[in-house]
Amino acid sequence: MQAAEEIQNTDLPGRQDSREGKYLTFTLAAEEYGIGILKVKEIIGLMPITPVPKTPQHMKGVINLRGKVIPVVDLRLRFGMEQAETTERTCIIVVEIVAEIQKIAMGIVVDSVSEVLNIKAADIEDTPSFGAKIDTGYMLGMAKSGQGVKILLDIDKVLMNTEFGGSSAEAF
């Protein structure tokens, strides 16, 4: 009987196993989020951001990072939250997203970076359904941590407007 249970447990959908791993956790408006550590290129302090005309409000502009121009998104505004005052903990996480067939470096402004966590598959649950009209496709799942929950993000989908907060093929 035990062997049958072990076989059934290995036949679970592969998605949960693929979500297990290390996540950089950060805060936005007192909520905890996580991004797969392999997407993170570096964490830098807030630096001057050059605004770009005619971009969505959440697009803060671009920065010059060691000779490379990197677009920067305010993740609070991207999620429809109020803009916050910057603090000494406000920083930019530089991530590498996959857009169509190319990789793009982008910066995301967050309130603060917390830590890197190794999250086990058993601690990750699917995103609950919030109703038919609410898209949760940009969430990989919910990680249980102590008494709280961390929202694990698919940063590619958050930063590319695939049915999230705007028209479907629009970048950022």
Secondary-structure element sequence?
HHEEEEEHEEEEEEH
Could you tell me the number of beta strands?
Answer: 11
Low-confidence sequence ranges: 1-16, 162-172
CATH topology: OB fold (Dihydrolipoamide Acetyltransferase, E2P)
Please state the average pLDDT score. Answer: 83
* Number of domain units: 1
CATH class: Mainly Beta
| Physical arrangement of strands within the biggest beta sheet | 8-1-2-11-10-9
* Percent helix: 10-25%
Computed CA radius of gyration, to the nearest angstrom: 17 Å
Discrete helix count: 4
Q: How much of the sequence is in beta strands?
A: 35-45%
The end-to-end distance, rounded to whole angstroms, is 51 Å
Plain-language structure description:
This protein has 172 residues and is mainly β. It has a single domain (2-159), classed as Beta Barrel (OB fold (Dihydrolipoamide Acetyltransferase, E2P)), CATH 2.40.50. Helices cover 14% and strands 44% of the residues. The chain has 4 helices and 11 strands; from the N terminus they run H-H-E-E-E-E-E-H-E-E-E-E-E-E-H. It has helices at 2-10, 14-19, 75-78, 155-159, and strands spanning 21-28, 31-36, 40-45, 59-65, 68-74, 91-99, 102-110, 112-119, 124-125, 139-145, 148-153. It has a 6-stranded mixed beta sheet. Mean pLDDT is 83; it is low at 1-16 and 162-172.
